[in-house]
């Protein structure tokens, strides 16, 4: 069935209190749930209470302590007739966590028990109104074998615990903050904690624990530091203080997503907790800092103020992503973080917006909500709130978020509530801006700059493309930061913000005797694409001189993208090709030589636009041609700048290991240099990469060198891969890297490698990290996935079909890659569609996969 946003109705019953009692066992856990229920005065009365279930059978059902048979099952749900206004409903169920391969609800992960309830996992534990607008306080009693489960954790505070004579022990937890069921969590297992503490701005002393497996304790330091920084930052920047005496994090190795913000008991994928320099890269360290912050920030944007229904998901996710992005900007390099975030948006969200799965940040309908944990809801959602912040400025933005938190604390709110708080708190009219919540598709802004006499006139027009279900669009407010540079002095008279609200508009700027150079959408102030025939000399000017580092990056990217597009189209003869490559080499050469740049920024400027992004800029893409031309360009640059890259690599190699920005920057440019050198001069690249691999005293250098070697042929490749595996065999997260490097490699035999890795004893479809490390890496490796034979498509379709019965949520995440078929050249397109149809015709598809496949076929 399709769930629609317009059908929202408040639940007829309130459930102010819940008492849960768990008798824990890996293959049998008994759950007794006691719900105090009362009529919801704000809803239409209904004598029947509808309790969601998923794969449950009730063992007993009691009303006010008495057995009853006034219930029946409706599909997986339990419907119970209640005679009066308020009752106590007690239901007992039994579940088998060891059989739970979906990893939703209560499941087993290497001998421990843990939960994932967002969005609709709680109904796999007990019958309950499993919707985010039913808020309850929870008291939880749990009993389990003291040896198998020495640590017993739940939300809130530990109130009592003790031992029984039969080898079991128990704990009782109470969470004073009313919450929806999706924020419930329970963990039981053999765990050890890194314990620390934090004193809040009002003097509350909070105990912090990060629970991990015994041997992993030494790798929790960075996560703990990140947590304390997050807590301090949220106080300082958003005025948000933590509200319990205890904050627990548990790392688990089987997890569908990154992490989960359960009240007082965050559950994390080990990937976002464990790090040290020998086993984690610099970008892993950043990922941990960002995800720890994200989940912590949810305590206010998500938990204290939660969502009314799942259509409002971006209310908590878009806002929390913005909060974690701003935090990471403050912790490290602001422009570098901005570039990374825009790269993710363009690489993951733009393709969503331009394909069959396009949806607004606040969707209107779904079949399976898990399919809407998307880059659109998360990352575009963050961009939409960032635009509001840009329009009103930091101070008024803060006034508005204060108002939002104050007004809706303890409530299940809507995106509309957020917008209204923004209007009132910041004093801005967002009437038209609301379209960003309802319209899907990336707006295209066409830009033309005219110069006449002393005046420069900017002609802007916008078009929001049609998307499935939304053929007609209205113009939206698009805030564009811009600057006009004087060609002679290389300076401008200050950045301005213009907001394009109409389909077309002009903006005039006086005082320009000469045509200025336009820098537009600075800092990526709006999540749009800019269409403009920018003169090459202007791009070269901006790539060298723009004082906005993002705009400078953008100009360099534009220069490369426009060249590659022409090359892919076959529009360039040899001479034109050569002169364009020389121009790009000069621009990159300037980046290499510019000593005002730090290496972290230099590293960003050196990254070529991805094949996915290049494909996205074309109406119909030929992935084979894109790969060839991009590799050819990389090789040409590697050859033309060989001496410079060798010198850069040498300089950077002299910087000793540390986690500070300078040393991290050095590591980043070092591997960038290797990538170019390996493309231009494979023998030299191989020798240098092998030397970097052997001399590495940290994972960033080691992985970077191995990545380069994995794309080449020769004995060094084999030796390095074998050495890496042997060295880190016992470490699942590093073995994941070993799989991923091979599946994402430039090696022509990548597909064959993936096929044989699937038979490796360490490979399993049961662990999502391992599945992603092999198959996601492959599906997002354009040259391998888009093999002209169609074998890559078949391989991914086989994975979807094999994984669907085990873990439908993860299986469905592979569908969007095949869903790109309409935007790919006809030969491959037909092969992609064929695989989608093969999946569609399989018997008994999960709701997750069915929805994605049917939307993809359109
Ligand atoms: N709320 C979590 C986060 O953003 C993600 C949980 C997603 N769960 C799911 N089943 N899709 O951090
Ligand atoms: Zn989140």
TrEMBL record:
- EC number(s) per UniProt? 3.4.11.2
> What InterPro entries does the annotation carry?
Aminopeptidase_N-like_N, Aminopeptidase_N-like_N_sf, PepN_Ig-like_sf, Peptidase_M1, Peptidase_M1_dom, Peptidase_M1_pepN, Peptidase_M1_pepN_C, Peptidase_M1_pepN_C_sf
Every Peptidase M1 membrane alanine aminopeptidase domain range: 223-433
Domain Aminopeptidase N-like N-terminal, chain residue ranges per copy: 19-183
A Pfam family assignment: Peptidase_M1_N
A molecular function annotated in GO for this UniProt entry is: alanyl aminopeptidase activity
Would you say which domain of life the source belongs to? Bacteria
Limits of the Peptidase M1 alanyl aminopeptidase Ig-like fold domain: 441-532
Provide the alphabetized UniProt keywords: Aminopeptidase, Hydrolase, Metal-binding, Metalloprotease, Protease, Zinc
Q: Which cofactor does it need?
A: Zn(2+)
Reactions catalysed, semicolon-separated, are:
Release of an N-terminal amino acid, Xaa-|-Yaa- from a peptide, amide or arylamide. Xaa is preferably Ala, but may be most amino acids including Pro (slow action). When a terminal hydrophobic residue is followed by a prolyl residue, the two may be released as an intact Xaa-Pro dipeptide
Peptidase M1 alanyl aminopeptidase C-terminal domain location, by residue? Answer: 537-857
UniProt similarity note: Belongs to the peptidase M1 family.
Descriptive protein name: Aminopeptidase N
Instruction: Give the classification, highest ranks.
Output: Bacteria, Pseudomonadati, Pseudomonadota, Alphaproteobacteria, Sphingomonadales
Q: Give the gene that encodes this protein.
A: pepN
């Amino acid at each position: 069935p399709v769930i629609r946003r317009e059908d929202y109705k408040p639940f007829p019953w309130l459930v102010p209190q819940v008492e849960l009692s768990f008798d824990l066992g890996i293959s049998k856990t008994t759950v007794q749930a006691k719900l105090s229920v009362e009529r919801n005065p704000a809803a239409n009365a209904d004598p029947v209470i509808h309790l969601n279930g998923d794969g449950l059978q009730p063992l007993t059902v009691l009303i006010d302590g008495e057995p009853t048979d006034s219930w029946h099952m409706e599909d997986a749900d339990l419907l119970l007739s209640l005679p009066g206004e308020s009752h106590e409903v007690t239901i007992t169920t039994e579940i088998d966590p060891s059989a739970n391969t979906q990893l939703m609800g209560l499941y087993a992960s290497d001998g421990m028990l843990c939960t994932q309830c967002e969005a609709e996992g709680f109904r796999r534990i007990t019958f309950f109104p499993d919707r985010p607008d039913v808020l309850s306080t929870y008291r939880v009693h749990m009993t389990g074998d003291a040896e198998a489960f020495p640590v017993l954790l739940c939300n809130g505070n530990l109130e009592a615990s003790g031992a029984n004579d039969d080898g079991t022990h128990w704990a009782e937890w109470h969470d004073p903050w009313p919450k929806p069921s999706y924020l419930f969590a329970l963990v039981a297992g053999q765990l050890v904690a890194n314990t620390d503490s934090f004193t809040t701005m009002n003097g509350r002393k909070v105990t912090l624990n990060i629970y991990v497996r015994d041997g992993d304790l030494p790798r929790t330091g960075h996560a703990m530091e990140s947590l304390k920084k997050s807590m301090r930052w949220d106080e300082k920047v958003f005025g948000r203080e933590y509200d319990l005496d205890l904050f627990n994090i548990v790392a688990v190795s089987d997890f569908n997503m990154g992490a989960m913000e359960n009240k007082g008991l965050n559950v994390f994928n080990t990937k976002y907790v464990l790090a040290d320099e020998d086993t984690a890269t610099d970008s892993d360290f950043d990922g941990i800092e960002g995800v720890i912050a994200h989940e912590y920030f949810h305590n206010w944007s998500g938990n204290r103020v939660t969502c009314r229904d799942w259509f409002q998901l971006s209310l908590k996710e878009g806002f929390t992503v913005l909060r974690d992005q701003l935090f990471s900007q403050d912790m490290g390099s602001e422009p570098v973080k901005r570039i990374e975030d825009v790269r993710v948006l363009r690489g993951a969200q733009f393709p969503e917006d331009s394909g069959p799965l396009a949806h607004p940040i606040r969707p209107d309908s779904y079949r399976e909500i898990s399919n809407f944990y998307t880059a659109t809801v998360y990352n575009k959602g963050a961009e939409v709130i960032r635009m509001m912040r840009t329009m009103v400025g930091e101070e008024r933005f803060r006034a508005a978020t204060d108002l939002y938190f104050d007004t809706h604390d303890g409530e299940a709110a809507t995106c509309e509530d957020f917008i209204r708080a923004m209007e009132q708190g910041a004093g801005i009219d967002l009437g038209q801006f609301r379209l960003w919540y309802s319209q899907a598709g990336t707006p295209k802004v066409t830009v033309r700059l005219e110069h006449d006499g002393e005046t420069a006139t900017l002609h802007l027009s916008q078009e929001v493309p049609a998307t499935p279900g939304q053929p007609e669009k209205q113009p939206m407010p698009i805030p564009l930061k811009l600057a006009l540079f004087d060609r002679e002095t290389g300076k401008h008279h200050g950045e301005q913000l213009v907001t394009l609200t109409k389909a077309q508009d002009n903006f005039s700027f006086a005082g320009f005797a000469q045509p200025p150079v336009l820098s537009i959408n600075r800092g990526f102030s709006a999540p749009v694409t800019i269409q403009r025939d920018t003169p090459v000399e202007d791009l070269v000017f901006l790539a060298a001189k723009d004082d906005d580092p993002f705009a400078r990056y953008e100009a360099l990217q534009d220069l490369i993208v426009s060249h590659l597009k022409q090359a892919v189209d076959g529009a360039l003869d040899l001479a034109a090709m050569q002169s364009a490559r020389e121009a790009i080499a000069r621009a990159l050469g300037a980046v290499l030589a510019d000593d005002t740049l730090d290496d972290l920024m230099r590293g960003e400027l050196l990254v070529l636009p991805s094949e996915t992004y290049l494909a996205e800029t074309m109406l119909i893409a030929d992935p084979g041609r894109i790969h060839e031309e991009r590799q050819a360009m990389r090789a040409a640059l590697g050859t033309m700048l060989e001496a410079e890259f060798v010198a850069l690599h040498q300089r950077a190699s002299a910087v000793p290991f540390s986690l500070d920005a300078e040393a991290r920057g050095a590591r980043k440019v070092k591997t960038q240099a290797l990538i170019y050198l390996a493309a231009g001069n494979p023998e030299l690249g191989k020798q240098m990469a092998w030397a970097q691999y052997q001399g590495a005293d940290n994972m960033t250098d080691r992985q970077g060198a191995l990545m380069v070697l994995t794309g080449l042929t020769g004995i060094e490749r084999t030796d390095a891969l074998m050495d890496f595996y042997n060295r880190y065999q016992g470490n699942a997260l590093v073995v994941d890297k070993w799989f991923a490097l091979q599946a994402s490699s430039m090696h022509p035999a990548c597909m064959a490698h993936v096929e044989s890795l699937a038979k490796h004893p360490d490979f399993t479809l049961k662990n999502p990290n391992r599945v992603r490390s092999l198959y996601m890496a492959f599906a997002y490796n354009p040259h391998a996935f888009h093999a002209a034979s169609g074998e890559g498509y078949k391989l991914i379709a086989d994975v979807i079909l094999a994984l669907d019965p085990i873990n439908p949520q993860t299986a469905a995440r592979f569908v969007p890659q095949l869903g790109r078929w309409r935007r790919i050249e006809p030969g491959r397109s037909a092969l992609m569609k064929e695989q989608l149809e093969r999946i569609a015709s399989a018997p008994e598809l999960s709701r997750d996969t069915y929805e994605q496949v049917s939307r993809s076929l359109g």
